Amino acid sequence: MLDAKDAAETIELLEENYPDSHYYLNFKTPIDLLVAAILSAQTKDEIVNRSTPVLFDRYRTAKDYANADLKELEDCVKSVSFAGNKARNIIKACNIIVKDYCGKVPDSMDALLKLPGIGRKTANTILINAYGIVDGIPVDTWVIKISNRTGLSISAKPDLIEEDLKRIVKRKYWRNFAYVMKAHGHAICKSVVPVCSKCFLNGRCRRNGVTRSD
Ligand code: SF4
Question: What integer pLDDT is reported at residue 48 of this predicted model?
Fold first, then answer.
């Protein structure tokens, strides 16, 4: 792992280079966000954002989703991966939300983690973007990959990576940290062949696991 000084400088450089990073899925309400976040697992954001306008128009509340016909909901989201499974989870989660939370998406980590299709990453995403509650850092595949490569965390487990990051990332950066990492992944630290020769972290980054780079 990087020492505290190198880690702090790495994080500052990432933040400086992607000042406009923000959450990428479109939504207006907490229930929109919960549904979009469930749909986004292993699916590109653009595909989710293309599916959701029709979906959000047809289903507006947790009750609408709880009462949805599985086949119709699945058909609405058929362009995302695992559409059937995700549609099933949305209906189940919304039934719990209607029954236990009067139709309001819960605003606590513990409650969110009890909903089907919601893991810690998605729960953090909902808390941050729907309610402005910033108690954690969403750890997605980009955060895992770039944290490991740079040496910000050497763990492979998202929960442990989040703990490592919460120790070294200033709290003011938690809200957008995952989106900064994603921006770096798209621009330079590409998934298969990172462009290390053009990277502002070159020389400081550990390049863990990088066997080929441009
Ligand atoms: S130096 Fe290479 S591996 Fe490290 S962050 Fe930059 S692009 Fe990624």
Answer: 98
The answer on pLDDT for 124 being more than 90 is: yes
Measured CA distances, 131 to 30, 106, 163 (Å):
8, 10, 22
Residue 174 CA to ligand 1 center (angstroms) comes to: 21
CA 201 to centroid of ligand 1, rounded, Å: 6
Fold of 4-21+137-198: Endonuclease Iii, domain 2 (1.10.1670)
Q: Is 17 in the pocket of ligand 1 (CB under 6 A)?
A: no
User: Are the C-beta atoms of 168 and 143 separated by less than 8 Å?
Assistant: no
Specify the pTM. 0.93
Question: Ligand 1 within 6 A of 202 CB?
Answer: yes
Checking phi first, is residue 203 left (phi over 0); if not, alpha (psi -120 to 50) or beta? Answer: left
Specify the DSSP element, H or E, that contains 131.
Answer: helix 120-131
Q: Does domain 30-131 have CATH number 1.10.340.30?
A: yes
Separation between Cα atoms, residue 199 and residue 212, nearest integer Å: 14
